[in-house]
From TrEMBL:
It comes from Sulfurimonas autotrophica (strain ATCC BAA-671 / DSM 16294 / JCM 11897 / OK10). Coiled coil: none annotated. The lineage of its organism: Bacteria, Pseudomonadati, Campylobacterota, Epsilonproteobacteria, Campylobacterales. It is found in: Membrane. This is AI-2E family transporter. InterPro entries: AI-2E-like.
C-alpha cells in the first residue's frame, strides 16, 4: 500500500472519530465561527488599539455577550417566570372577556360577529390551561438550553478570535487552493457576513428601542417588549406586526381606543416607514464606512430576506445567522468561479 493511501485512510478514520467526539458542539462551534467572521473588523480594531490579541478577543466576546445574548437571556428569563406564575383562573377570565367582546363587539367590529361566534364553540379552558403549562415547561427548558449554548458560543467565539489568524493561515496551507483564491473567498465571505450581521444588530436595536420607548409610556415594561420587538423585527415583513397588533387588540379590548390607534400608527409610520426605510440604510452605510473600509460587498435585500426566512425555517433561531452565511458562501464561490473563468478565457486568447 502506498504511503499516501495509508495516510488518507488514517485521516478519514480520525475525521470520523473527531465528528463523533465534537458532534454535540458542531452547531455552537459553527455559530461562533460565523460570528467571529462577521465581527473580525471589530476585533482588529481592538487589537490595534490595545496591542494585545488576548484583550481584543476578550473585549469582542464581552461586547457580543452584552449586545446579543444578554437581551435574549433577559427576555427568556422574564417570560419563563411569567408563564410559571400563570394562574388557571386568569385564563378563565380571558375566555369570559373574549366571550363578552364577541357577543357585544364595538360598532366598528360588528361585521366580524357572524364569523367569530362559531369560533367560541371550540374553546376549552381545560385544554388552554394544559397548553399554557406545557408552553411554560417548554420555555423553561429552552431557556436553560439557551444559557448553556450561549456560554459555549462565547467560549468558542473567544478562542476563534484569539487564534483566528493562526487558524486561517493553517487552513490556507491545508486547502488545495491557491493563496489568491483562498484570500478572495475569505475576504468576500467576511465582508458579506459583516454587512448582514451589522444590519441585523442595527435593525434590532433601533426598532426595539423605538417600540420599547413607546410602550413604556403606556405603562408596559419597555425593556422587555423592546427586546421582543427587536428580535421580532428580524422576521422580514411580518416581524413588527407580530408585536404591535396584539398590543392594539388588547388596548381596544380594554377600551383604550386612543392608545390602540397610537401604537398602530406609531409602529407603521415611525418604525416601519421612517426608521426601517430611511434611517436604517443611513446607519448601515455609516457602519460600512467605519468598519468595512476595504469591502465593497453588497447583498441584495431580497436575497437577505429569503436567506433569513429559509434559515429560520430550517435551523430555528440560529438560522438567522446560518441562512445568510450559507447564501453568502455560495455567492462567494460563484464570484470566485466567475473570476477564474474570465482568467482562463483571457489566457486562451
Amino acid at each position: 500500500m502506498k504511503s499516501q493511501y495509508f495516510i488518507a485512510i488514517l485521516f478519514a478514520t480520525s475525521l470520523y472519530w473527531m465528528y463523533l467526539l465534537y458532534e454535540p458542539f458542531l452547531m455552537v462551534m459553527t455559530i461562533a465561527a460565523l460570528l467571529a467572521i462577521s465581527t473580525a473588523s471589530i476585533n482588529n480594531y481592538f487589537e490595534q488599539l490595545f496591542s494585545s490579541r488576548f484583550v481584543a478577543a476578550f473585549l469582542s466576546s464581552l461586547l457580543l455577550a452584552i449586545l446579543f445574548f444578554a437581551p435574549l437571556g433577559y427576555f427568556l428569563a422574564t417570560l419563563t417566570i411569567k408563564l410559571n406564575h400563570l394562574e388557571p383562573n386568569s385564563l378563565k377570565n380571558i375566555e369570559l372577556y373574549i366571550n363578552g367582546l364577541i357577543t357585544n363587539p364595538p360598532e366598528f367590529l360588528l361585521f366580524l360577529k357572524p364569523y367569530l361566534v362559531d369560533s367560541l364553540k371550540g374553546i376549552d379552558i381545560n385544554s388552554l390551561t394544559a397548553n399554557a403549562l406545557h408552553v411554560a415547561a417548554k420555555v423553561g427548558t429552552f431557556s436553560a438550553g439557551f444559557v448553556k449554548n450561549a456560554f459555549l458560543v462565547i467560549v468558542f467565539y473567544f478562542f476563534a478570535m484569539y487564534n483566528g489568524s493562526t487558524i486561517v493561515e493553517f487552513l490556507k496551507r491545508v486547502v488545495q487552493m491557491s493563496v489568491e483564491d483562498s484570500t478572495l473567498l475569505a475576504r468576500e465571505l467576511s465582508a458579506v457576513m459583516s454587512v448582514v450581521f451589522y444590519s441585523i444588530i442595527a435593525t434590532a436595536m433601533l426598532e426595539g428601542a423605538l417600540f420599547g420607548i413607546a410602550v413604556s409610556f403606556m405603562g408596559y415594561n419597555g425593556l422587555l417588549f423592546g427586546i421582543m420587538y427587536g428580535f421580532a423585527s428580524l422576521l422580514p415583513v411580518v416581524g413588527g406586526i407580530l408585536m404591535w397588533l396584539p398590543f392594539m387588540i388588547y388596548e381596544l379590548s380594554a377600551g383604550h381606543n386612543a392608545n390602540a390607534v397610537f401604537i398602530a400608527l406609531y409602529s407603521i409610520i415611525v418604525i416601519s416607514v421612517i426608521a426601517d426605510t430611511f434611517i436604517k440604510p443611513l446607519i448601515i452605510k455609516e457602519i460600512n464606512k467605519r468598519l468595512l473600509k476595504e469591502s465593497d460587498a453588497k447583498l441584495n435585500e431580497l436575497v437577505i430576506f429569503f436567506s433569513i426566512i429559509a434559515g429560520l425555517a430550517t435551523f430555528g433561531f440560529w438560522g438567522m445567522i446560518l441562512g445568510p452565511a450559507i447564501t453568502a458562501f455560495f455567492l462567494a464561490i460563484l464570484k470566485l468561479f466567475e473570476a477564474r473563468t474570465k482568467e482562463c478565457e483571457t489566457k486562451s486568447r
